[in-house]
Amino acid sequence: MNSQNAETLYERLKREAEAAGYLLNPDKTFVLGLMEGLLTNEERYGYQSCPCRLADGVRETDLDIICPCDYRDPDLDEYGACYCALYVSEEIALGEQEAEPVPERRVARPQPADEEHDDQLVGFTRGGIPVWRCKVCGYLCARPQPPLKCPVCKADKDRFERFA
Length: 164
Fold this sequence. Notes:
Layout: H1 3-19, E1 23-24, H2 28-45, H3 59-62, H4 72-79, E2 87-88, H5 90-93, H6 115-118, E3 121-122, E4 125-126, E5 129-134, E6 140-142, E7 160-162
Antiparallel strand pairs: 1-2, 3-4, 4-5, 5-6, 5-7
């Protein structure tokens, strides 16, 4: 793996993370190792699956672990870091708090979506997942919990409401 490619990916993800209100782990050497893992998985599978998890190599079953994974926000919210520790809380980034181990949230491999019913919204859920609305800008997302930050206006998690 080319370390220049890892550095380029690091710079891009750092910009994107900060623009969306997230912080990368301040240990750049550690993060560059993760970047190499993401790039290796992209070469292997065609997408950047989490380097700390075993991917199936089938995009539809790995959607939840394509970086940033579906578990990032709940992990940050509860533990201050995501599973692979790429994303961290402000307290960890500033050295005010130590990162602690994050348990795996991915219990079972998700199955590919049922295409016949995937596009149906049922009771303001998508496939049984609640829909959240940012009260500031109106951004909508279907996920188990609202995001920590709105990707559009950067409003905090508490500015989201269950869409009804």
